[in-house]
Amino acid sequence: MYKIDMTSNDLDKQIALLKFFPEVVEKHFRKLLVTDVSKLWSVIRGQIPKRTGKAMSKFRKSVTVKGINLSGKVGWWGSNQPWYINVVEYGARAHEIKAKPGKWLRLQGGRYVKSVRHPGMSKRGFMAAGFAALKPMIDADMLAAGNAVLKELEVK
Fold first, then answer.
1. How far is the C-alpha of 111 from the C-alpha of 131, rounded, in Å?
2. Which helix (H) or strand (E) holds 148?
């Protein structure tokens, strides 16, 4: 059996060294990360299925920088996010929807029922498709930033 690890003494030393120079990491990564997150946000936003507009209005992006820890995210989080968007992205199997005890479900057209059979729906995969389209560019940008950091910290 062969095992390939992403840790080594040299890599651990480089990461420890970067903790003393977070401004170098930020200098090379932050702008690219902000740009890439914005591009990803735009691509995915253009693919969000629209019905009421709640998913569109709650779609967010964020870049966080804490020392050498940088992260970017795109999507829905926090309070008041659309509950259904996960179902739209990943689909749902056929299932029964039941009213709470003592309550009724109101269908379109004003009809009331105790339960209804939902036929399910196929996944849309709009977020996965947006990420897949930009992943090669994001990977190339992050590699370039990493190389720039190494070049700047290079001992000559």
1. 41
2. helix 126-153
Q: Identify whether the C-beta of residue 91 lies closer than 8 Å to the C-beta of residue 128.
A: no
Classify residue 48: in a domain, yes or no.
yes
Q: Is 110 exposed, middle or buried (0-12, 13-18, 19+ CB in 10 A)?
A: exposed
pLDDT greater than 50 at residue 1: no
Distance from C-alpha of 136 to C-alpha of 122, rounded to nearest angstrom: 27
Give the residue numbers spanning the domain of 20. 9-89+126-153
Q: What is the pLDDT of residues 17-29, one digit of tens each?
A: 778 888 888 898 8
- For 6, counting Cβ atoms within 10 Å of its Cβ (0-12 exposed, 13-18 middle, 19+ buried), the class is exposed
Contact 121, 87 (CB under 8 A): yes
CA–chain centroid gap for 97, Å, is 29
> Does any domain span residue 148?
yes
Question: Could you tell me if residue 94 is inside a domain?
Answer: no
Residue 51 lies in a domain: yes
Would you state the structure tokens that stand for residue 91, as one six-digit string? 């689909």
Q: What is the pTM of this model?
A: 0.80
Structurally, the chain folds into a number of domains equal to: 1
